[in-house]
Design a protein that fits this description.
Blueprint: H1 9-15, H2 32-35, H3 52-67, H4 71-83, H5 88-97, H6 100-106, H7 113-121, E1 125-127, E2 130-131, E3 144-147, H8 154-163, E4 172-175, E5 180-183, H9 198-205
Antiparallel strand pairs: 1-2, 1-3, 3-5, 4-5
Helix pairs in contact: 3-9, 4-5, 5-9, 6-7
Length: 207
């Protein structure tokens, strides 16, 4: 399974915004954006004029980095979104939102999507009572996502839920006591609060 192994704070600095990749650290003064709000590398402080292609590329890179997917996987999501009815850009974000690792994060069980991915990959999460260890699993309406009763992450998840760093979106329903969430519907664009202009991604892939 391919993964990004370099320092994730470099990704936030490259995009110039907080992507909230490191959980609680992103809310403190230790956040890389708070300390060095310029691109990484020896030419980071140099000013450069962005082209239209560059702007479109940055939007794609932001979406990839926020959801933690690599290029080939992102292109598969785009092809699937393009084949579905509706607006391609919105379809793309809706698919990414329904990834199991993202759902675990959106429910507040994980402090970041990376932690949600780790929880799923290490078999701490169940969907409708069965173990699912694939972070890219796309949840469906009516499915119940919960922590396994024997999971060693119980205390960590309880701390994350107590922190309540972000509200649970309307398409999900959380039972804090049971550490369980239910998919009540499909996400709509208003529920997806990420700083990405999806139309620019569509324009990039349309070239």
């Amino acid at each position: 399974m391919a993964r990004y192994h370099a320092a994730v704070c470099r990704q936030c600095r490259r995009e110039g915004i907080k992507l909230f990749l490191k959980g609680a650290r992103c809310f403190t003064e230790k956040c890389a954006i708070e300390r060095r709000n310029y691109p990484p590398g020896q030419h980071g402080l140099r000013r450069s004029k962005a082209t239209s292609y560059g702007v479109q590329l940055r939007e794609k890179q932001k979406a990839k980095r926020i959801y933690g997917v690599l290029e080939s996987q992102f292109r598969r999501y785009f092809a699937r979104a393009e084949a579905e009815k509706g607006v391609t850009g919105e379809n793309l974000l809706k698919l990414l939102e329904r990834r199991l690792d993202n759902v675990v994060f959106r429910l507040g069980m994980a402090a970041s999507r990376r932690e949600g991915r780790q929880m799923v990959a290490h078999s701490h999460v169940q969907v409708d009572g069965r173990k699912v260890s694939v972070p890219s699993y796309i949840v469906k309406v009516g499915e119940v996502v919960q922590l396994r009763a024997t999971s060693k992450m119980q205390e960590r998840v309880a701390d994350n839920l107590a922190a309540g760093r972000s509200p649970v979106p309307a398409w999900l329903e959380l039972d804090v006591n049971e550490k369980r969430g239910t998919v009540r519907g499909l996400p709509i664009r208003e529920d997806i609060q990420i700083p990405v202009q999806e139309q620019l991604i569509v324009e990039l892939f349309s070239k």
